[in-house]
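Sequence, please.
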């Protein structure tokens, strides 16, 4: 199936990031599988089953799923096991998230099986990988320069990911193909006013590259913050920026409700 150039490098990336190569499309490295409310985006508040894979090709310094990226942990689960657990919950929506779930060939097999069973699927992706799969909503979160783990922000303290992250964080070809193929929401993690010029420039480039319109209604600004205390510092200004630029604001409902508890 068609993939982007970034996905062509996925085998090497996954060995580095998740600690094991993706040897079969019948299993996935699963960090968490749980039932909760969708906390972000246009479907915020919808009861959903979350399937969180481990392994990522980027390293945002503020990553709120640290154990899928900086210190990836997982249990490898077979497709049948994953589907059985999903079906044990009374939910029509499934969110495939990470890490970066499109790294894994097994994610495509899972999405096909969920489509056959009538589930609505959202895929949370950083937009650096394109794959052709049955996805109802592609929730694409392009990473801005403010996400780069500079030595002073790197949670490991060594800054070894700075260059790699900065080089790989935007793949315009993959972004254009995602917005052309899927119902999409572009969800930007915003720290402050300094992020807005880059968002405007990225959207201009994407509109030039894509063969379909990219509406401001599909652009969501989300405050940076994985804890209630941090959100209290960022959300008011991000809400003001959404109104100023004519974009949508998305909360982080799960953080408001449960702070940084796992499986939320």
């Amino acid at each position: 199936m068609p993939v982007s150039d970034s996905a062509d490098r996925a085998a090497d990336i996954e060995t580095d990031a998740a600690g094991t190569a993706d040897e079969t499309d019948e299993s996935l490295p699963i960090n968490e599988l749980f039932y909760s409310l969708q906390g972000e985006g246009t479907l915020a508040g919808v009861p959903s089953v979350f399937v969180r894979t481990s392994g990522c090709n980027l390293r945002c310094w503020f990553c709120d799923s640290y154990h899928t990226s900086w210190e990836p942990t997982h249990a490898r689960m077979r497709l049948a096991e994953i589907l059985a657990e999903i079906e044990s919950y009374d939910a029509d929506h499934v969110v495939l998230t990470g890490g970066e779930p499109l790294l894994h060939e097994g994610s495509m097999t899972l999405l096909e099986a969920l489509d056959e069973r009538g589930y609505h699927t959202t895929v949370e992706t950083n937009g650096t990988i394109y794959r052709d799969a049955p996805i109802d909503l592609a929730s694409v979160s392009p990473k801005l320069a403010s996400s780069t783990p500079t030595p002073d922000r790197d949670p490991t303290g060594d800054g070894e990911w700075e260059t790699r992250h900065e080089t790989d964080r935007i793949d315009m070809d993959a972004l254009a193909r995602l917005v052309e193929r899927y119902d999409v929401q572009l969800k930007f993690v915003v720290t402050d006013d300094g992020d807005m010029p880059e968002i405007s420039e990225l959207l201009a480039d994407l509109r030039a590259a894509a063969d379909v319109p990219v509406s401001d209604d599909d652009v969501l600004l989300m405050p940076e913050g994985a804890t209630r205390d941090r959100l209290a510092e960022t959300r008011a200004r991000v809400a003001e920026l959404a109104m100023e630029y004519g974009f949508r604001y998305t909360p982080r409902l799960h953080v408001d409700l449960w702070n940084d508890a796992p499986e939320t």
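Residues 27-187 form a domain with the TIM Barrel fold (CATH 3.20.20.70).
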